[in-house]
Amino acid sequence: KHLISPDYSQIELRVAAYLSREPVFLKAFNEGYDLHTAVMCDLLQEDYNDINPILRDKYPKDKYQTYHDYRLVIKRVNFGILYGIWIEKLIKVAKQMNLNLTEEETKNFIDKWYTKHTALLGWIHQTENQLIKDGELRTIFGRLRHLQGANRKDKFGKRMLRQGVNFVIQSPASDITLIAISELN
After folding, report:
1. Which phi and psi angles does 136 have, rounded to 5°?
2. Which of 32, 63, 67, 160 has a CA 20 to 30 Å removed from the CA of 139?
3. Secondary structure letter of residue 8 according to DSSP
4. Kind of pairing, strands 144-146 and 136-138?
5. Sign of torsion, CA 39 55 102 98?
6. What is the distance between the alpha carbons of residues 166 and 173, in angstroms, rounded to a whole number?
7. CA–CA distance, 86 with 46 (Å, rounded to integer)
8. What is the mean pLDDT of each run of 10 residues along the chain (185 residues)?
9. What pTM, to 2 d.p., does this model score?
């Protein structure tokens, strides 16, 4: 008997990369990189192979802490973008990590993220548009979810859009995880 510990921590981001064909995400996964570090390096225009050893070895301490904190923000943004993060929420999350970001800094950061990841952003908008038009979405494995009232005009409609994008990503991620677990038996 063996005890194993599979890592499904970025499965939703992998599903999003597959669905959107987002080049930065796909490159990171194909090269075995940590996605959050790869996105951070892309945004900072730094080489992954220069930054990753600092994060891995926690040395030099000052650079490690800076990159570590920045990576945590990137991690929140990577997941948050998929699930409709609001500027106010990101500011609150950053404050919990002792990072004081202004609303303007946060908006600029999210805008920069959007300009670097146009395939993913385009896919999100396409998915939302399909939901507005059809009132339902189907996953890559065929699951169907009805979400009537989705729109970009009011709070309820926006919530339906977020739930739709969540569904199209989280449902296949869950299915893949269950398939993997059943294959382990």
Report:
1. -155, 160
2. 32
3. -
4. antiparallel
5. positive
6. 10
7. 27
8. 74 95 95 93 94 96 91 86 80 80 85 91 96 98 97 96 96 93 82
9. 0.87
